[in-house]
Amino acid sequence: MFALYLKTKSFHWHTTGRHFRDYHLLLDEQTEQIFSMTDGIAERARKICGTTLRSISDITRNQRLNDSDQESLTPKDLLTQLCADNKELIRFLHLTHQVCEGHKDVATTSLIENWIDESERRVWFIPEILADL
């Protein structure tokens, strides 16, 4: 989640083009949503006696989404990457949901269902924007 948060925030900071304001606001909204998920994940992990991330290097060791260090991306390129990353996140969330269901962890599966819905909304918005680029 932190990898997706930072990537989305970076694109928010570096977006350009004639629809700058729209992209900037959309990505700001999405980063807030993604960041709020991180706290829910950590709190749920602690409630079931798990551990949470402890540092930037811990995030790096555990991240599954690729970073983007490119200095210049077109709005189409950055939105395409974010769409793919959010689709991959949805896949990860579905897999995690299955594990939690197997352990009868109703509270976590309920949270994951909400996170899947939020992620699907992000994926829904991005292609609509890409259609105009």
Structural class: mainly alpha
Would you tell me the overall average pLDDT?
A: 92
CATH superfamily: Ferritin, core subunit, four-helix bundle
Q: How many H/I helices? A: 5
- Largest sheet: number of strands, sense, barrel closure: none
CATH fold category name: Ferritin
Counting structural domains, the number is 1
* CATH architectural arrangement: Up-down Bundle
**Element pattern in H and E:** HHHHH
Number of strands: 0
Low-confidence stretches: none
**How much helix is in the residues?**
over 70%
What is the CA–CA distance across the termini?
27 Å
Question: What is the CATH class?
Answer: Mainly Alpha
Percentage of residues in strands: under 5%
* General shape: globular
Return Rg in Å.
16 Å
Describe this structure in words.
With 133 residues, this protein is mainly α. It has 5 helices and no strands. It has helices at residues 2-14, 20-47, 56-62, 75-102, 106-130. Helix 1 (2-14) runs antiparallel to helix 2, helix 1 (2-14) runs antiparallel to helix 4 (75-102) and helix 2 (20-47) runs antiparallel to helix 5. The longest helix has 28 residues, at 20-47.
